[in-house]
Amino acid sequence: MNLTQDLSIFELVANASLVVKLIMALLAFVSFMSWYWIFRKWFALRDARARTDKFERDFWSGGDLHSLYQSAANDRHSSGALERIFASGYREFTKLRAQKTLDQATVVDSARRAMRATYQREIDELDAHLAFLASVGSVSPYVGLLGTVWGIMHSFRGLASMSSATLAAVAPGIAEALVATAIGLFAAIPAVVAYNRFAHDVDRISVRFESFMEEFSNILQRQLR
Hints:
By secondary structure, the protein is mainly alpha-helical. Helix content is 85%, strand content 0%.
C-alpha cells in the first residue's frame, strides 16, 4: 500500500485506533443530530413567523375580538403562538369582567398575567433544543481534539518498535488522528452558526409577542371604561 492510499479519508478512518474510531462515530452521530434539529428548528421558526404575521394582520384589520377568540379556541392545534397568547388573555378578561366586584386594574392585570404565562410556554417551545446546538458547537472541537491527541499518542507508541522513523511511517498515523479534529469542526461550525441565527430569530419573535401583549392590554383597558 502506497502513501497516497494510506492518506485517503476512508483508509485513515478504517486504520484508526479503536478509541479514535469511537470518537469519530460519536462526532458523526452528534453532527447528524445537529443537522436534524437545525432543519426542524428552521421550519418551526419559519412557521412561527408566518403564523404571527397572519394573526397580526387579522387582529389589526379591525375584526371583532370575540370572533378572533372563537377562531383560536376552536382550532387550538393549528393556531399560532401569538394567537394562543391572545386567546389566554381574552379568556381571562371575559371571565373576570363578568365579576362586577373586581376593579378594572385587577381584570387587566389578570389578563396580562395569563398572557405572560402562555408567552413563557411558547418561548420555551421555540427555545427547545437550542441548548443542544450550543453544546455541540462548544464541545465538539474538544472531543475531536481528544481523538487527535489519542491518535498521535498511539502513532508514536507504534514508532517506538521501529529502528528508524520516516515520513511514510509517521504521516498516516498523524493524518488519521487529525481526521477526528476535522469531524469535530464539521459538527461544531454549523451548530454554532445555526444557534446564533436561531437565538436571534427567537429574540425578535419574543419582542413581537411582548409588544402585542402590551398593546392588547391597552385595548382591554379601554374596553372597561
